[in-house]
């Protein structure tokens, strides 16, 4: 890969016509002022981006493609890292994050705190939050819940500054990204939540036009946000994390107590059942022995009667 990004022929320039992204139409009104009309629709000389998403979704690879240099390492990175590069004639800052785990039970407070620390790495905030979602794996309700839970830690206003970035575009050879989104309910929800802002990339291909298009979409979003950067109150963010883990802890304690109580009642029931069973057994034994004694008496009475009858028949005196 070339060490630096030289300006491609189709690189975005102010005043030049820009293409709108695919599914803009039906939520256009909700998306705020038309970015193309906006006075903020200027080429950004500086662009700050943070990459969020699940582990192995392609965040670091995307960061490398954006900056056109291998600065973020693939694999299980445990910490956030920030890299700055000159992309064309603008300075681009990319903040990479470790990402959350696929299994929610493995997520810890420390991991969440590290993810949100990314926003502290840029004092003035970021122009765009890129939510990295791989196209090679299903984005189910479980992934949706996990993503929403993590993104909401930053506060509800984050969604105004967020764009979905689909990676592994090369894994969708037989259908368009639009078709793919339409087919998956959770993806439709996500794209709608971001007011139709999305972009797809193939990180295996060093194609600069995909980065240029991404920058155009980010500029549109920044214009719709009247040039404002996303800069959450970090105390609030950390507070939300503490609350989240307090809730989890409380839930676990309640679950344990419930399980303990359930076991106690189960044992109590078993013991009651055993006692009742023993009592029944005793009753049964008593009844059997009583009926045995009676039966014995009845037998002898019957036997002596028959013996008298028999003797009578034989005229035995
Ligand atoms: N085929 C393909 N592989 C990708 C793409 N993006 C990332 N990968 C691979 O997916 C794996 C995880 O990517 P990585 O960037 O480390 O994910 P991160 O954990 O989110 O930073 C790596 O093996 C990448 O080479 C893509 O667009 N296409
Ligand atoms: Mg990574």
UniProtKB/TrEMBL annotation:
Highest taxon of the lineage: Eukaryota
Stretches for region Disordered: 1-42
Keywords: GTP-binding, Nucleotide-binding
Native organism taxonomy: Eukaryota, Metazoa, Chordata, Craniata, Vertebrata
Family: Belongs to the TRAFAC class TrmE-Era-EngA-EngB-Septin-like GTPase superfamily. AIG1/Toc34/Toc159-like paraseptin GTPase family. IAN subfamily.
One of the record's GO molecular function terms: GTP binding
Organism: Oryzias sinensis
The protein's name: AIG1-type G domain-containing protein
InterPro entries according to UniProt: G_AIG1, GIMA/IAN/Toc, P-loop_NTPase
Sequence ranges of Basic and acidic residues compositional bias: 13-29
């Amino acid at each position: 890969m070339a060490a630096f990004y030289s300006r491609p022929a189709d690189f975005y320039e102010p005043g030049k016509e820009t293409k709108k992204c695919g599914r803009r139409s039906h939520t256009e009104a909700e998306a705020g002022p038309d970015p193309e009309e906006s006075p903020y629709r200027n080429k950004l000389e500086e662009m700050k981006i943070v990459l969020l998403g699940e582990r192995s979704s392609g965040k670091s690879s995307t960061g490398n493609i954006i900056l056109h240099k291998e600065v973020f390492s693939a694999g299980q990175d445990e910490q956030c890292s920030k890299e700055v590069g000159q992309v064309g004639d603008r300075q681009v800052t990319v903040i990479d994050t470790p990402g959350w785990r696929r299994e929610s039970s493995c997520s810890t407070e420390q991991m969440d705190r590290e993810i949100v620390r990314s926003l502290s790495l840029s004092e003035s905030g970021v122009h765009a939050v890129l939510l990295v979602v791989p196209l090679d794996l299903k984005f189910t309700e479980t992934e949706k819940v996990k993503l929403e839970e993590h993104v909401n830690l930053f506060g509800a206003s984050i969604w105004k500054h967020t764009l979905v970035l689909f990676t592994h575009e090369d894994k969708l050879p037989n259908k368009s990204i639009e078709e793919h989104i339409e087919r998956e309910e959770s993806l439709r929800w996500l794209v709608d939540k971001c007011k139709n802002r999305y972009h797809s990339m193939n990180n295996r291909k060093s194609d600069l036009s995909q980065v240029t298009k991404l920058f155009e979409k980010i500029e549109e979003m920044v214009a719709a946000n009247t040039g404002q950067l996303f800069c959450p109150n970090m105390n609030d963010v950390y507070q939300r994390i503490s609350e989240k883990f307090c809730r989890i802890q409380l839930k676990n304690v309640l679950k344990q107590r419930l399980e303990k109580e359930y076991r106690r009642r189960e044992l109590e029931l078993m013991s009651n059942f055993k006692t009742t069973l023993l009592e029944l057994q005793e009753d049964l034994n008593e009844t059997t022995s009583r009926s045995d004694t009676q039966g014995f008496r009845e037998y002898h009475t019957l036997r002596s009667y028959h013996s008298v009858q028999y003797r009578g028949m034989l005229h035995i005196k």
